[in-house]
Design goal:
The complex is a heterodimer of chains A (about 240) and B (about 900).
Chain A: H1 11-29, H2 34-40, H3 43-51, H4 58-61, H5 65-81, H6 90-95, H7 101-112, H8 129-148, H9 152-184, H10 188-208, E1 235-237
Helix pairs in contact in A: 1-8, 1-10, 8-9, 9-10
Chain B: H1 6-22, E1 48-53, E2 62-68, E3 71-77, H2 90-93, H3 96-100, E4 109-111, E5 120-122, H4 125-142, E6 148-152, H5 160-168, E7 173-174, H6 182-192, E8 198-199, E9 206-210, H7 221-233, E10 238-243, H8 248-252, E11 255-258, H9 264-277, H10 283-289, H11 294-301, H12 306-313, H13 317-329, E12 333-337, H14 339-342, H15 347-360, E13 370-371, H16 411-416, E14 424-428, H17 432-435, H18 439-448, E15 456-460, E16 472-475, E17 484-486, E18 496-499, H19 512-523, H20 540-548, H21 554-557, H22 560-566, E19 568-569, E20 574-575, E21 582-583, H23 603-606, E22 610-611, E23 616-619, E24 622-628, E25 631-633, H24 648-652, E26 674-678, H25 696-699, E27 705-708, H26 709-715, E28 722-727, E29 730-739, E30 746-748, H27 760-763, H28 772-777, E31 788-791, E32 813-819, E33 829-831, H29 833-844, H30 851-856
Parallel strand pairs in B: 6-7, 6-14, 9-10, 9-12, 10-11, 14-15, 15-16, 26-30, 27-29
Antiparallel strand pairs in B: 1-2, 2-3, 4-5, 4-16, 8-13, 17-18, 18-19, 20-21, 22-23, 23-24, 24-25, 26-32, 28-29, 28-32, 29-33
Helix pairs in contact in B: 4-19, 5-19, 6-15, 9-11, 9-12, 9-13, 9-15, 12-13
The chains are: A mainly alpha (about 240), B alpha/beta (about 900).
Chain lengths: ~240, ~900
């Protein structure tokens, strides 16, 4: 039984929450492309993000677009794609490998609501952070639609589905993970987006009245990962 | 009404026990089934079982993948597989962790920054293939196709890589065999045809094992472990193992005889000497089936006395005498070798000397003896591209005319010398920076040099020491996601098998066949360059279907469809739970066929054939058989159809054509503090790609160097102490493991550990920064209790090459072992390209054109010298 401490949702609140999920999903889904980046760097967006405490550095604000796209692509790869990085994938974070049971559990959850994961610019796993965030966004939007149509039973069902998904999946890993990214990122864009993710997720849990333990090792506060190649050390104990 | 109380219940049961036992039972304990089925322990739902071929190492065991929700949850042996009979080793059981490895590469990566800096950008397949294609196209239009080089490690693509390179017209295709077993192959091929033997351990009475760790690592570890155990237990076979260290196989043997490194051949020759001296040979077999007479053989072997061998090998002459008599009188008996004898400067001679014992005692192709390998072939999609017009000097260096499996480990020096220009280097599942002598100092240096190697594309699912210096990485698939044809001569029953995808590929990984086809289609979109025609298949399954569609017997039962269902063909019988062996329909163990050389030629075969004075049957300019005692036999696939004890081709190049032994010159007159460095494998690790596999890394993750108790005393170290190992090209610092199970003059460092560029587990990255990094990376890392990743030896091993077989003399390095010096840290290693280069020059002096060749072969004084022979390309593959 899920106990709810939160205030009743309004349609606007639900849509607003869904909006943040979609924004953050887009940030972590793949390397930003030019149109997305332009919107992110628009005056309005920068100001709105600043209001919630996001503070990008010059590397994001003052870099030529083409170079920034390249920089962010490399940073994204090193953080989330290349060996030695930490992919935003629940199975990896909580079960130590790709496509473990979390992957099929979230797929089942998507299927039950009529969704499936498609490739973006690159293929992603079902339990990728972006897919999980987009799933919640879609359910919140449906919840808003249900409220607008006075389908209260459906709205309640969707609300419970979202909470259940948070308890079983997102709530168990994305706060700790956000802290890891914040610590590890070299570019202010990912550092700030990770801070935003952390703050947003904490707020969401509060809004939903959920108390879920985060099991992700990232909460231990990470050092910055080094590049894969280091000066040769042919063996020996790690120090 | 019938009434039972607890008391009557107990009382009555005593009297009804026998009846209860005799009552018919329909319930069958599932654990009595020897594999093939599996159930989820929570839901009790049966898991989907998909047969495939294991490929963690290259033994090619039949495997069964159990899949749940599209995920491999367990791997087992395929009970239908005649060779491995439902068993997988520890490595095979852990194979799924390749697919799910958090360090896996699943998207094309392009380097950003300097080569080797370790910074990458993910790019699309389209971008990656466009760049690779453009580079290749530039060479094809403006250069020589041979500037495109492909070097492969574990290539089980069934011909795809060669098709690709042939399509491009490049002959620069290098393998990894010279760091594997090439001198074993070259020792055997000119003698009897095939490059390997199939010992019938299970039915043998006496097994002479030279330098092979059958129970842990040899070719073919799993099937041969089973057979040698049956031989020991069921046939009461005696096993004698010559090895420099007490491996688990040596420990399992009746006798472990420590032998000085590189002298197995001398011991084998002396055993042969005793057999021939005491007339214990099989004269009939020698006369009928070899190209020498018994008298010639006796005369030749007279020089190899046990006393001579004792001085070289340290094996007492009395022991040699006794073993010789035992081996010759036990019937059936077999020898077996793996890399121990072969990985030396004159490894081919050693191999030849060892196999001679099975030959002279007539144990060849006998039940319980030394048999020819049984293999099965499959076809290739048609049409096939023609072979390249021009040879590659890197592939077939003229100084090594007999090295039919190439001398790939010397390639960096040849490229550095400018012997062949390389513009595009394609690297398939090959990590020479780790696996080759010289490792980082030689291959790492080559790969970092953008002038010598302007463009490197690496085809791999994992980052490794070699992939770190790629310009582009294309994400190949791990084996559980690939299609590949298989056949291995690892049992006396030939078989064909497949690797099939048991799960969907993860991420955007693709298999070789698919992206190589895309490259060709981009190079030749309309077919006008004549390339596209060779890549005419719909997908990988279609390619495989074409490979199996015309195999007689398999075709009739369904070709690829049969293999998809059963994993292997033929299915010879059923795995018997009582014996663990394959039984036929009558319940008896299936029997192998022996005497392959004595298959009689048909009348049709003999039509138009002629028989010469030696009984060799010729037809259309080729020897097709041997006439003996009025019958026409097929003989051996050796060219002459006989076993060539005397290999005339060797004599052309000033090598001794008869069985012989050459002591490694730098092993003579060692100082008291000098030893020989050898390497070995653990039973849970392959050469370079298991140290980061979960489960396996936990079992073995460090490789402290075994040294003998007396040696340790002399040096003044005990187990766990730091030691410095200095070779002529560098030094390393590791820890000693003091044991009686080691030759006193040998230090052994396993090659399975000590990575610096592969996987978080192998490098123990997790332990950096006080344990935090790993905890954040992967929850399984919280379970890592060890802090020692081992020390890799290859950096300080010079690239010696057998002038005959081309094999790396991996077990030949003289080292000085001392207590670590002040400031030495565990894992330190240092070596010099220049010193490696000096040793490369030194090894070249032993080739037939080198200065040392004549000195090493005084018995070949009548040889007219290198100018007397025309250089030619070696045969073989």
């Amino acid at each position: 039984m899920i106990e709810s401490r939160e205030q009743p949702n309004t349609i606007d609140e639900l849509k607003s929450r869904a909006h943040w999920y979609r924004l953050l999903a887009g940030v972590f889904a793949e390397e930003p492309q030019a149109p997305f980046l332009r919107e992110l760097r628009s005056q309005a967006c920068i100001e709105s993000l600043a209001e919630v405490g996001v503070s990008f550095g010059e590397d994001f604000l003052a870099t030529d677009e083409e170079m920034l796209l390249d920089d962010l692509a490399a940073e994204y790869t090193m953080l989330f794609v290349a060996p030695g990085g930490f992919p935003p994938v629940e199975s990896v974070r909580l079960q130590g490998g790709y496509r473990q049971s979390a992957s099929s559990e979230v797929r089942d959850a998507y299927t039950a609501e009529g969704f499936s994961v498609q490739s973006g610019r690159f293929a992603i796993f079902d339990d990728h952070l972006a897919a999980q965030m987009q799933f919640v966004a879609a359910l919140l939007e449906r919840q808003a639609e249900a409220l607008a149509a006075a389908e209260e039973q459906e709205a309640r069902r969707l609300e419970k589905t979202v909470k259940r998904f948070w308890i079983k999946h997102l709530g168990r890993w994305c706060r700790g993970y956000a802290q890891l990214v914040e610590e590890a990122a070299e570019h202010s864009f990912y550092r700030e987006m990770a801070r935003l993710l952390d703050a947003f997720v904490t707020a969401e849990l509060d809004i939903m009245g959920l108390d879920v333990a985060d099991e992700d090792g990232g909460k231990l506060r990470a050092p910055k990962p080094k590049a894969v190649t280091e000066p040769m050390q042919c063996g020996g104990a790690a120090t | 009404m019938l009434e039972m109380t607890r008391r009557t219940f107990m009382k009555a049961s005593a009297g009804t026990t026998a009846a209860a036992l005799a009552a018919p039972s329909m319930l069958h304990a599932m654990e009595n089934e020897l594999g093939g089925r599996d159930y989820n322990p929570d839901t009790l739902k049966e898991r989907k079982a998909i047969p495939t071929n294991c490929h963690v190492c290259n033994i090619q065991d039949g495997a069964m993948a159990f899949v749940e929700d599209g995920r491999v949850v367990k791997l087992e042996g395929n009970p239908n597989h005649v060779s491995t009979r439902g068993r997988l080793c520890a490595k095979g059981n852990a194979g799924m962790w390749y697919s799910y490895d958090p360090d896996r590469i699943m998207y094309p990566l392009k380097r950003v920054g300097k080569r080797g800096e370790g910074k990458w950008k993910r790019i699309s397949w389209d971008e990656a293939l466009s760049e690779v294609t453009a580079r290749i196209d530039d060479v094809l239009k403006n250069g020589d196709p041979n500037e495109i080089m492909l070097k492969y490690g574990r290539n089980r693509t069934g011909g795809v890589l060669h098709r690709f390179m042939d399509t491009l017209g490049s002959a620069t295709v290098l393998n990894h065999t010279s760091v594997c077993e090439s001198s074993k192959k070259v020792g055997m091929e000119p003698t009897w045809g095939p490059d390997i033997e199939t010992p019938d351990f299970a039915n043998s009475k006496y097994i002479l094992n030279f330098g092979s760790n059958i129970l842990e690592a040899a070719y073919f570890h799993n099937p041969y472990s089973q057979r040698i155990t049956e031989g020991r237990v069921d046939s009461n076979a005696k096993i004698v193992t010559f090895d420099v260290r007490l491996s688990n196989t040596a420990g399992f043997s009746d006798e472990w005889i420590p032998v000085y490194p590189g002298t197995d051949g001398a011991v084998a020759l002396a055993i042969g000497h005793v057999i021939l001296r005491e007339d214990l040979q099989d004269s009939g077999f020698i006369t009928d089936w070899t190209n020498v007479t018994v008298e010639e053989l006796k005369e030749h072997y007279r020089q190899f006395t046990p006393q001579w061998a004792e001085e070289l090998s340290g094996v007492p002459a009395d022991t040699i005498e006794r073993i010789a008599r035992e081996f010759a009188l036990a019937k059936p008996a077999t020898t077996y070798t793996y890399r121990g004898p072969a990985k030396h400067l004159y490894g081919a001679y050693n191999e030849k000397a060892c196999m001679m014992l099975s030959i002279m005692t007539g144990n060849v192709e006998k039940r319980g003896g030394y048999c020819l390998p049984r293999g099965m072939g499959y076809g290739q999609p048609q049409p096939e591209p023609p072979k390249p017009k021009h040879g590659s000097i890197l592939k077939n260096p003229p100084e090594f005319p007999l090295a039919s499996h190439h001398v790939s480990h010397l390639v960096p020096f040849w490229i550095a010398e400018g012997r062949q220009k390389i513009s595009v280097y394609i690297n398939y599942m090959d990590n020479p920076v780790y696996t080759n002598p010289g490792s980082e100092t030689v291959w790492g240096e080559l790969f970092r040099n953008e002038e010598l190697i302007p463009f490197r594309v690496v085809l791999t699912p994992f980052m490794g020491e070699e992939a770190q210096t790629a310009d582009i990485i294309l994400p190949e698939l791990p084996y559980l996601e690939r299609w590949e044809p298989e056949s291995m001569p690892n049992s006396l029953w030939p078989w064909l098998g497949i690797r099939q995808p048991v799960i969907e590929p993860l991420g955007e990984g693709k298999e070789h066949r698919v992206y190589l086809q895309e490259i060709i289609h981009r190079l030749d979109p309309d077919g006008s360059r004549g390339m596209k025609q060779y890549w005419n298949f719909k997908d990988s399954e279609d390619y495989m279907r074409q490979q199996f569609e015309n195999v007689p017997g398999l075709k009739e039962v369904g070709g690829l469809d049969w293999l998809k269902k059963h994993g292997v063909w033929p299915v010879y019988g059923k795995l018997n739970p009582a014996t663990g062996k394959i039984s036929d329909k009558t319940g008896r163990e299936i029997r192998a066929e022996y005497g392959l050389h004595m298959k009689e030629l048909s009348a049709a075969d003999m039509l138009g054939a002629s028989v010469d004075e030696k009984g060799i049957i010729h037809k259309n300019g080729k020897a097709i058989g041997v006439q003996r005692h009025g019958k026409n036999y097929v003989g051996f696939p050796s060219g002459s159809r006989l076993i060539n004890v005397r290999v005339d081709e060797w004599a052309e190049y000033g090598f001794n054509p008869m069985p012989t032994f050459k002591r490694i010159p730098w092993h003579e007159n060692l100082k008291d503090d000098e030893m020989i460095l050898t390497t070995y494998k653990y039973n849970v690790h392959v050469q370079s790609r298991t140290a980061s596999v979960k489960w396996l890394a936990e079992i073995v993750h460090r490789n402290w160097a075994p040294i003998n108790t007396e040696t340790a005393k002399r040096i003044g170290v005990k187990t766990g102490d730091l030691i410095r190992v200095e070779s002529p090209v560098g030094h390393l610092v590791t820890k000693a493991y003091v044991t009686e199970g080691q030759h006193p003059n040998v230090i052994a460092i396993s090659t399975g550990c000590g990575h610096w560029g592969y996987g978080r587990l192998a490098q123990l990255k997790l332990k950096e920064k006080g344990g935090q990094y790993g905890a954040q990376e992967d929850p399984d890392m919280n379970n890592v209790w060890w802090e020692d990743k081992g020390v890799h030896p290859n950096n300080i091993i010079p690239a010696v090459a057998d002038p005959i077989g081309g094999s790396a003399g991996w077990y030949d390095t003289v080292v000085k072992v001392t207590k670590a010096k002040a400031g030495d840290k565990y894992g330190d290693t240092e070596a010099s390209w220049d010193k490696h280069f000096e040793w490369y020059k030194k090894t070249m002096s032993f080739t037939y054109v080198g200065d040392a060749h004549r000195k090493m072969h005084p018995e070949m004084a009548s040889w007219a010298g290198p100018d007397s022979v025309e250089p030619k390309e070696p045969s073989g593959h």
